[in-house]
Amino acid sequence: xxxxxxxxxxxxxxxxxxxxxxxxxxxxxxxxxxxxxxxxxxxxxxxxxxxxxxxxxxxxxxxxxxxxxxxxxxxxxxxxxxxxxxxxxxxxxxxxxxxxxxxxxxxxxxxxxxxxxxxxxxxxxxxxxxxxxxxxxxxxxxxxxxxxxxxxxxxxxxxxxxxxxxxxxxxxxxxxxxxxxxxxxxxxxxxxxxxxxxxxxxxxxxxxxxxxxxxxxxxxxxxxxxxxxxxxxxxxxxxxxxxxxxxxxxxxxxxxxxxxxxxxxxxxxxxxxxxxxxxxxxxxxxxxxxxxxxxxxxxxxxxxxx
Length: 306
Hints:
Largest sheet: 7 strands, mixed
Structural class: alpha+beta
Number of helices: 5
Number of domains: 1
Order of helices and strands: HEEEHHEHEHEEEEEEE
CATH class: Alpha Beta
Oligomer: single chain
Radius of gyration: 25 Å
Helix content: 10-25%
Strand content: 25-35%
Mean pLDDT: 82
CATH architecture: Alpha-Beta Complex
C-alpha cells in the first residue's frame, strides 16, 4: 500500500510505481515549434547572463554612380548602422519531487520532467515572440498594397482580414514569395509559418495531387512540412490570433532568416534538497533575447478561414 500524500498534493503512487504500470510514460503532445529554424542565432554564443547586450553591425548603404573620363569621383562616408540585441527576458521552471516517489519510481522522474518543462518553455517563448514581431513587418509587406513594386498584393487589414479558401490558399503563399523577391530577399532561407487550418486547405485544394511541398519531408517536431514555391513551410500552433468583429483573424508570418535574430541560453539548472518537505527541487532558468534586424524581409498576412 503506498504512503499517503498530504491533502491537496498529488499522489504519484499508482501512476509511476512499476507493479501497476509500464515504464513508458504517455507521450505528451507538444505543440510543434520552429523558432530556431526561421531565424538566425549568429550571436547566441556571445551571451552569458540576463541583461547582456550584443551590438550587431550591419552593412552600410553604398551609392553606385556613373563616371565619365576625367571626372572627379565622389567619396562618401556611408552610414554604418547597428542593431542592439538585448538579453532582457528570462523564464524559469521549478518543481519538487517527493523523496518517496523519487525512490519508488522505476524511471528517472527528474530528467523526464525537466525535459518536459524545457519543451513547454520553448513553446511559451515562441508564442511570446510571434505575438510581438508581426507588428515589426515592413510597411511594404503588409496590408492590401503589399509589394515594393507591385503595390497591389492583398495581405488583409484590420477590420477586413483576408478570407483564405481552398481556391486561394496555395496562391497566397506564392504571393509571399513575390513580396520577398521584390524586397531582394535571397531565395535560400525563405520561410512561412502556417496555422493547421491553412495547410489543411492547401492539402484539400485542386493542387493536392501535386508534389506542392517540393520534398518528402513530413511534419516533425519543428513543424516543417516541406517547400511551397521555394519557401520552407512550417505548420505551427504558436501563431497569434485576435477577434476582429465576428471573425478570428490570424497573424501569419513569413520572411527570410535574416529578418530575426534570437539568442537563448539555459544559464543555470540546479537540483536542491528541500528539507522541510523531504523532496528534490529541480530548477531551470533561461535567458533570451530577440530582435527584428531586417524588417524588409519580414511580412505579415492578416487572414481568416471563414
